Amino acid sequence: MISTAIALIMSLQGVGTTAVAIRNDDPETWTVEYPRVIQPYVADYRGCLTFGMRYVTGVADFEEQHRSDVPRCEQVRAQSIAISINTFADAKTKLTEAQLEELFDDIGKIHIQRGRDLDEQFAMRIAAVQRAEAEGPPARPKPLVIDLPDPSVVKSRSSSPAPSPSSSDFVGK
Prior knowledge:
Distance between the termini: 89 Å
Number of helices: 6
Radius of gyration: 34 Å
Structural class: mainly alpha
Shape: elongated
Order of helices and strands: HHHHHH
Number of domains: 1
Number of strands: 0
């Protein structure tokens, strides 16, 4: 997951637009709840899903890449479910095999949704770049111009000695 984010950031670094926060009007929240005793097995499956190499090709195909992780991690999923079933054999709180299957299915769906979300973000950034390129460079305000005289001219004017005051200037004052 981190490599995907880094790859996306690196691919978009050359873009000359500023990031804009977009408020999602219809947020979708995925949550999974499970007993802490099976947390290591869930972590194994999630680790397998997120371990895959992501390729940034200039096309929004992260969902496909994330979707291909699910079959690749099927063996880890099956082992995690089997170990979880054995863990619950003597536990007070039990999850059925169907509940465990649903839990691990949901984890896979969340993983695919993350890829879909990256595709949407990527498409929005590409569209923003295309709009910015179509509009051209942003209009810049006219610079403030201050006309300063050449320092050599100023020096030559002030290099002549000032007239010395005459004694009549100080008499009677």
